[in-house]
Specification:
It is built from 9 helices and 8 strands. By secondary structure, it is α+β, with helices and mostly antiparallel strands.
Length: 321
């Protein structure tokens, strides 16, 4: 009985193993390559699949999702003979599992080497300045070459990105100095422009202030002249209304002479001819008004007597024949 039990156990184990090998569950976004006696038979898609146990075998399981592969920095020589290190990132997707399995031994390694050689060809035709400022151009050119070359491998390159472009240390120092000089230059230009604009605004403000001040002074002078004219007109009308004679006018003129002489610039006086006649009349009036005028004859007699009293003799000389 024991040998029969052992045989039954072995059969059960073989059946269980056969079931395991017969039923193949493929996850979503994956594919499996089936070989029969070492030859490609079919590709298993996602879901439950049945294969012939011990005859069919699973060669490879491939992920059909988009993959991201970063490549280490690669030294590349530019057109102006400068060595730069460039990091790249490749976004690819397997579209044909059979081609990715049988057309290339290792598509990851193949993509990396193709990326390096293509990148060297592209960067070799650019100088350093263009390399640093043409990332989009480099990405587009690199993607076009990789997508065309990897198409027969059942791989589609969706995007290529340059992570970093590192020039030599000496070039980095020179670039930093140049950038600092450019920033200082722009700052100096902006400062000079600000000073210029400030000077323009200040001059414009002073101009407007001078114009307003001149207009104010002109209006004030006009008002002052108008006031003086009005005052003169009023005085003239008052004089004519009072019927002043020449004596009063001469007296008023004499009172105004000290005020006229107060100015340093008054070097020349113009006296009307009528003022002389008025002054003569005024002096005559003042002489008639003088209270000492009645004593003038006695004083003269006294003077004559005093002259005689002083011993001064006046002798008459005889006429000479």
């Amino acid at each position: 009985m024991q040998p029969i039990i052992i045989v039954l156990i072995i059969l059960v184990v073989l059946v269980f193993i056969a079931l395991i090998k017969t039923i193949q569950v493929i996850p979503q976004a994956s594919a499996a390559i089936v070989e029969r006696f070492g030859r490609y038979t079919r590709t298993l898609n996602a879901g439950l699949n049945i294969v012939v146990p011990f005859i069919d075998s699973i060669r490879n399981r491939i992920d059909l999702r988009e993959q991201v592969v970063p490549f280490p920095p690669q030294p590349v020589i530019t057109q102006d003979n400068l060595v730069v290190n460039i990091d790249t990132v490749i976004y690819y997707q397997v579209t044909d599992a059979r081609a990715a399995t049988y057309e290339v031994a290792s598509y990851i390694q193949a993509i990396e080497q193709l990326t390096v050689t293509t990148l060297r060809n592209i960067i070799g035709g650019m100088d350093l300045e263009r390399t640093l400022t043409s990332r989009e151009e480099i990405n587009a050119a690199l993607r076009g070459v990789l997508d065309e070359a990897t198409g027969k491998w059942g791989i589609r390159v969706n995007r290529v990105e340059l992570k970093a472009i590192e020039p030599p240390t000496s070039i980095q120092d020179s670039m930093e100095k140049q950038m600092r000089a450019d920033r200082d230059k722009r700052a100096a230009i902006l400062t000079a422009e600000g000073i210029r604009q400030s000077a323009i605004l200040t001059a414009e403000g002073e101009k407007q202030s001078a114009i307003l001040r001149a207009e104010g002074e002109a209006k004030a002078a006009a008002l002052r002249a108008e006031g003086e004219a009005q005052a003169i007109r009023t005085v003239f009308e008052s004089i004519h209304a009072g019927d002043a004679d020449q004596k009063l006018l001469a007296y008023q003129y004499l009172q105004m002479l000290p005020k006229i002489a107060e100015g340093d610039a008054n070097k020349l006086w113009i006296v009307p001819s009528e003022i002389g006649d008025a002054l003569k009349g005024l002096s005559g009036a003042m002489g008639n008004f003088n209270p000492m005028a009645g004593m003038g004859g006695g004083s003269g007699s006294g003077s004559g007597k005093s002259a005689g009293g002083n011993g001064t003799e006046r002798r008459e000389q005889p006429p000479i024949d």
